[in-house]
Amino acid sequence: MGRAVNTLLELREVTKRFGGLVALDGLSVHVDSGEFLGLIGPNGAGKTTAFGVLTGEQRPDSGRGYFHGDDVTRMPTHRRVARGIARTYQIPRPFGEMTVLDNVRVAMMPDSVRRLIAERPPEGVDRELLRSVGFGEREAAMYPDQLSMGELRKLELARTLATEPEVLLLDEVFAGLTRGEIAQLSALLVAERRSGMTAIIVSHDLRSLAPLVDRVVVMSFGAVIAEGAFEEVLDNPLVREAYLGQA
Predict the structure, then answer these.
(1) Residues 6 or more apart from 242 whose CB is under 8 A from it?
(2) Which 8-state DSSP code applies to residue 200?
(3) Is 20 helix (H, G, I), strand (E, B) or coil?
């Protein structure tokens, strides 16, 4: 069973070790359907590891993961993607030898020959996805090494949306962007939120994150130290000490 009837994705009391390092220490975190959750904390807090466990890229040493109330702890990554869990990465990972359009087309490909025959995407959906992130025909024909960091992050988002996710896990989505690029990407995320998308966003850019999220969770040393409304959480003395470096 999941945490609540509207809980979409959840980690419950998850511990993950890498040798002698405890990356996640009994972590419990959830996101509700239609919610945009901010996940923040200092470097090394375990945020990216949490994403790895949520997507099946990391296997927890203990604890469980749930999606729609189903235990997905041992479900492989490709099956989670097929069910609707998708993520971006701190460092974009496009296929460098493919054009922007082909990068999106690959992400749209079903995970079996049977599905490829039965569920071939309608003509033009790939270009529609690119238009949704602000790419026209010129950008569609370009290669990743011709794109700015902001454009690479938009391509990463388009590739993720191409899998038709229910929940987006966005890891440092604003890192390395100009204020103008952040504004453009934020507008795209606002549109996704209005469409009913669910998301967990990891970011050190609190200024850009604050207007996007309904709730924020703060991690330190692999565990949750605070959660709630953004301004309320930032007033927490534990958060100021751990995250902002203030006593």
Answers:
(1) 41, 42, 218, 220, 225
(2) E
(3) coil
Q: Strand locations in the chain, DSSP E?
A: 7-18, 21-32, 36-40, 62-67, 70-71, 85-87, 167-171, 198-202, 215-220, 223-228
Residue among 217, 221, 247 at smallest CA distance from 230: 217
Can you tell me the distance from the alpha carbon of 32 to that of 214, in angstroms, rounded to the nearest whole number? 10
Find the radius of gyration of the CA atoms of the chain.
Answer: 18
> What pLDDT band is residue 134 in, cutting at 50, 70 and 90?
confident
| pLDDT tens digits, 79-103 | 999 999 999 998 888 999 999 999 9
> Nearest-5° angle of CA 3, CA 163, CA 1?
15
Domain boundaries, the chain: 3-95+165-244
- Spatial separation of the C-alpha atoms in residues 51 and 57, rounded to whole Å: 8
| Percent of the chain residues past pLDDT 70, beyond the cut | 90
pLDDT over 90 percentage in the chain: 62
Q: What is the CATH number of domain 3-95+165-244?
A: 3.40.50.300
In 3D, which of 92, 59, 66 has the Cα closest to residue 172? 92
State the pLDDT at residue 241. Answer: 84
Handedness of CA 228, 36, 148, 207 (dihedral sign): negative
Residue 92 corresponds to which tokens in the numbers above?
């974009």
Which letter does DSSP use for residue 193 in this model? H
At 141, list the tokens.
């024909």
